[in-house]
Design a protein that fits this description.
single chain; 15% helix; 6-stranded antiparallel sheet
C-alpha cells in the first residue's frame, strides 16, 4: 500500500500562542471522511487548545472551538486553512 505523503508541516508563533498545521495526502480516505487528506490544524495558547481542526478516524471532519466540538464540512485544503485561520483570529 502506498504511504501517506506529507504536504504541509508548519509551526509558528501567533496571537500569543502557537499555530501548527500538518496535512498529508493519504492513499485512502480516513473513514468516515471521503477525501484523500488527513489533517491536524491547531492553535494552542497557555498549553490549551483554543482552536483545532482534524479528521480523526471514526469521527470524520470536525473542529474544536474552545470546549465545543462541531462538525466541519471539508471542501478543499485552501478552504480548510482559511476557515481555521478565521476561527483563530476570531477567538484571540
Amino acid at each position: 500500500m502506498p504511504e501517506a505523503e506529507l504536504l504541509l508541516k508548519t509551526r509558528s508563533v501567533h496571537g500569543g500562542g502557537i499555530v501548527e498545521m500538518v496535512v498529508w495526502r493519504v492513499p485512502e480516505p480516513v473513514p468516515p471522511s471521503e477525501h484523500a487528506f488527513k489533517y491536524r490544524l491547531v492553535f494552542v495558547r497557555d498549553g490549551k487548545r483554543v482552536v483545532g481542526y482534524d479528521n480523526e478516524r471514526g469521527k470524520g471532519d470536525h473542529k474544536h472551538l474552545g470546549q465545543a466540538e462541531l462538525p466541519y464540512k471539508f471542501v478543499d485544503i485552501e478552504t480548510l486553512m482559511a476557515d481555521f485561520l478565521r476561527d483563530v483570529e476570531a477567538l484571540q
